[in-house]
């Protein structure tokens, strides 16, 4: 029998339940996938807590990698036995197998292991669109990245190094600072004891940075704005500390004619051609060893409650996966 994590109400990690489920056969445009590894992402906690709405009861998770077991009518480009990965599909990735839309899938090269794919499909595609679509960054630019030792951060800094971009990263501890440096972060600020804005100004000779990438949200919003150069861009792509505060347009003018954007990965992979392009570049770097994907935490799927506690407490470093 197949198993899955489901939740019937929003709240703390304990609302998630490990259950036996009936999977069934794929319908038109669908496939049945047997998971080999499942991704654990901070966004999962948003659905569980209710920050992101979901019709209840619901499955959990949007990222996994595995093998196609059955193909429904009208599916093109995939067949039984194909290795695939995905992110952004309907909730339900925390499962041993599932039926899902075929158009959510991305073909997984033989040179990338399932655990690696589950650890980096969402994070890697996020780093991809942040670096390749949001702003015309060029070699020699300096940017500020919060959570530099997180799953996205470790991929972002390695990719930025390939592009000749200097990264100033913030972290919460010396241990995380070491990890960030090891993955190419040029300047690391331990925000629990250092003044982030002052350090950014010092590193940039008082100018500030043209772009700040902020996945933290509420607690870093003012810091991010004050770290920007004139006409700089704040990219709010996560809310780990809570929702981004309301934006005062006059304040943006006073602080240097600043810009703010709140992108979502879904809008950068909605077009199949663009998704394939972003994934192709990501996969090529990983296969060639130019970007390394470290998995620092592994959990059994039935231990999702503990995994979410670890994630929300800040104990996790880099990427985490569930083994199936």
From TrEMBL:
Single GO cellular component term: cytosol
List keywords of the entry alphabetically: NADP, Oxidoreductase
Q: Which Pfam families match?
A: ADH_N (PF08240), ADH_zinc_N (PF00107)
Extract the GO molecular function terms from the UniProt entry. mRNA 3'-UTR AU-rich region binding; NADPH binding; quinone reductase (NADPH) activity; zinc ion binding
InterPro entries, alphabetically?
ADH-like_C, ADH-like_N, ER, GroES-like_sf, NAD(P)-bd_dom_sf, QOR-like, Quin_OxRdtase/zeta-crystal_CS
Signal peptide per UniProt:
none
Which superkingdom does the taxonomy of this entry point to? Bacteria
Per UniProt, residues of the Enoyl reductase (ER) domain are 11-322
Kindly give the CDD domains that the UniProt entry links to this protein: QOR2
For this protein, the record's PANTHER family field holds: QUINONE OXIDOREDUCTASE PIG3-RELATED (PTHR48106), QUINONE OXIDOREDUCTASE-RELATED (PTHR48106:SF13)
State the protein's name: NADPH2:quinone reductase
Q: Which organism is it from?
A: Rhodococcus tukisamuensis
């Amino acid at each position: 029998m197949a198993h899955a994590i489901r939740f019937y109400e929003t709240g703390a990690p304990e609302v998630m339940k490990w259950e036996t489920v009936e999977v069934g056969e794929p319908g038109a445009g669908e496939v049945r996938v047997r998971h080999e590894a499942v991704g654990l992402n901070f966004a999962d906690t948003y659905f569980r807590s209710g920050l992101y709405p979901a019709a209840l009861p619901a499955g959990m998770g949007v990222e996994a990698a595995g093998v196609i077991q059955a193909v429904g009518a009208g599916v093109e480009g995939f067949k039984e036995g194909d290795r695939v990965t995905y992110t952004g599909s309907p909730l339900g990735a925390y499962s041993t197998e599932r039926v899902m839309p075929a158009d959510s899938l991305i073909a997984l090269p033989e040179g990338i292991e399932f655990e690696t794919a589950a650890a980096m499909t969402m994070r890697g595609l996020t780093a991809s669109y942040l670096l390749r679509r949001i702003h015309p960054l060029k070699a020699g630019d300096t940017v500020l990245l919060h959570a530099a030792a997180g799953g996205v951060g470790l991929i972002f800094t390695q990719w930025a190094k390939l592009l000749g971009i200097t990264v100033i990263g913030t972290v919460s501890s010396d241990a995380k600072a070491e990890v960030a440096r090891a993955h190419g972060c040029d300047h690391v600020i331990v925000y629990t004891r250092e003044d982030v804005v002052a350090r950014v100004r010092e590193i940039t000779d008082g100018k500030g940075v043209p772009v700040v990438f902020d996945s933290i949200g509420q607690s870093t919003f003012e810091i991010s704005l004050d770290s920007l150069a004139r006409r700089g861009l704040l990219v709010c792509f996560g809310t780990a500390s809570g929702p981004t505060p309301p934006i005062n347009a006059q304040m943006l003018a006073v602080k240097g004619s600043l810009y703010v954007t709140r992108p979502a990965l879904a809008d950068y992979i909605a077009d199949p051609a663009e998704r394939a392009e972003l994934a192709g570049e990501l996969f090529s770097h990983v296969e060639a060893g130019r970007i390394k994907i470290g998995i620092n935490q592994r959990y059994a799927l039935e231990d999702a409650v503990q995994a979410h506690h670890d994630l929300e407490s800040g104990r996790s470093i880099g990427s985490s996966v569930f083994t199936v």
